[in-house]
Write the structure tokens for this entry.
Amino acid sequence: MSRTTRKLARFAAAATAVALVAACAPGSDDDGDDAEDNGASAEVETDLEDLGDVTLVVWDQEVRGGQSEQIDELNQAFEEEYPNITVDRVSRSTDDLRTTLRLALTDDDAPDVVQANNSRTEMGQYVGSGLLEPLDAYADTYGWFERFPESVRSLAMYSDDGEVYGDGALYGLPQMGEIVGLYYSKPKLDELGIDPPTTYDEFVAALETADDAGELPIQFGNLNPFAGIHEYGFVQNQFLDAETIRNLGFGRPGSSWLEPESIEATETIMSWVDDGYFTDGFAGLDYDDSWQQFTQGEGIFLVAGTWLLADLDDAMGEDVGFVLPPAGASGQRLVTGGISIPFAIPANSANKEAAAAYIDFITNADAMTTVAEAGNLPVVDADQQEASGLQAEVFEAWGQAGAEDLLVPYLDYATPTFFDTITAAIQDLLGGQRDPEDFLNHLETEYLEQVGG
Amino acid sequence: MSSMVGTETAAREAARRRRPKGPPGEPRRLAYLYILPALIVFVTFIGLPLFRSATFSLYEWDGLGSSTWVGLANYAAVFTDPALRGAFIHALVLIVFYAVVPVSLGLLLAATMMRAGRMRGLGLFRVLIFLPQVVPMVVVAIAWRQIYAPEGPLNSLFRAVGLDAVARPWLGDYTWALPSVGLVGTWVGTGLCFVLFLAGMAKVPRELYEAARLDGASPRREFFAITLPSVRGELAVALTLTVIAALKTFDLVYVMTSGGPGNQTAVPSYEVYRHAFLIGEVGTAAALALVLTALVFVATVIINRIGDSNDGSAPAGASGIRALARRNRSGPPVASSDQPGPDPDLDDAGPEPEEPAGSDDPRQQGRGR
């Protein structure tokens, strides 16, 4: 080969490569046509025996002790009820499930039931790409609309294009509820002579009393970025009203982070930092270390979710209590919370009717009892469960949140990237790298960029 | 009998005639056949994925639905988005902790140990220093996260000796989070460098040092004149491994800080993972990954150049490094001015030394070759 032909060949190879790169656009074979057959008009088959032998592939992420047993128990009961159906359980950790789910959903041979996180980055994107089955037809048949309150259902509802969150069709059902409330140390409150606070003023008074007595007012560790959202949301709930927080959380156009109440909330949390109301060195404290320190008597309050229910109950027994966040300006005890990762049906599933029956089965009244017995918070019927101690207090708080419509969404639901934006910004704020005004302006800019005015 | 011998000779003759002239492997087509199995493995597991990533990097794609062609916009974002650019700057800072410090420390430790000669407990010491290499990085990260905890052993130590002002939440501190992560890299990397250098130095003939000492060379002079040039190959290997480790840091950040506080410890690999799997920006992730790949490639090439440039003048003791340093140039020995170290007069082909051949003249190095 002469030098020029070699050069030519190289050029041709490069050109081909570029052409190939341009030609094979990733994911271009999927236009999301699947949204057509949402079965809204078709009759839903509920008599599973007519389906013949079915192997139902279920992907869940309930790998922790009590939760894993709870699923196993329900699967067994389901198989006993419907001998022609075999449940093939695939259980992965939350992170592993999330990273493999994208590939699994686009596969022609998709699983039949999956736990798909209801955030925009996951469920929202799956819905937008037509990879999840809308469940409205099944919900009609099985009566899910009556069984699950709207505040719960809306957390798994999206528009067809996945752009609008909290409205549209139902895409999944959760087994458990979760709220970020206020745990308190009973012996320490008794010692200080204060009652569990029900209003903002009482809460602030309690913080001062605790601080004066040399006790740590609020146990907090913010090394794991997610922790900051819970702490900030807890304070925000005492300044803003439910509607404003929901608009911000669901990323509805027209909302703003620059309301005067947001500034007050942000300045308040900063004043707590300045007054030393949080754990010394909270910026470097691991989340798990933090609540473990609480169980060992460091701190009289702990702002945390009901996912710690079983752990705190084990460690502290009668010494720990749980209440909804104190009522602030709105007069309501608003509480950040939501649902455990909902079970959904992939659009590519071959056994959708059996899948819907499965989801109904693991969320029915008997299943809720199983959930409660496993030490968790059932998403519905919590008030009908037998419980005592901390579990009873959590069930009661959840029941009250549902009855009085107190639930507000996590702030990171707003946009696909808002989790990163707000967690980093809260670390910046609490670490003194941004002042409250700068913090809110930053959030507003990022928010408007994604959501639009 | 004789006829058989004749046939055999003839056959051998024929075989010799059939074997084409030229170096083994000729003709080229045959050579390609030899490398085919390796090539298939390479193309399947490296070439195609790389190509596919290059494709992804030109699109905006969430990993699920249809994609939009954006040309080089993703690459532009890598260089203009302050968060992504910051990740690369953090990786460069980590190179100091992962590569520069461990290599320097490893050299110092190994050289000291070689001078010390037979030392009690040398084996144990070697094992202890190398041990971090054996522990999985995730375990290392979890252990150090505990050490750095606000009430952890490190702060307790500082408080115990009255340095309360030094104690801080290391991983949550805006100034100290990145150095804290980097220091773990130093702790892990030093053992590898140390063992590599120790092996390299063991091959240097003792006579070189004896000669140097007879000529009155100071320990410092000995180090720069004999030890350092002898381990140049090991140096290249150590630098290559540690610099790559620094650039591709993921596990430490993932476990210890998740990129925080703020974005203070965000690094490219973590950003790739975050964009691809957590926020569904596969295009940006692919572009980042490719830029990172290119950076690693360039770093490796540069480091190997440094390792190679001394081939002509390395002392005999360093012969073992050649397999490691993958020499691919066969030019004349490189001029002495290319060498690091303060002694341009080492190469005996060079100009006459300016200072009189006195106490410090290390010319004996040439004799050792």
Summary: Residues 48 and 354 of chain A are 7 Å apart (CA to CA). The radius of gyration of chain A is 25 Å. Chain A touches chain B through 49 residues (CB under 8 Å). The domain at 178-339+408-452 of chain A is CATH 3.40.190.10 (D-Maltodextrin-Binding Protein; domain 2).
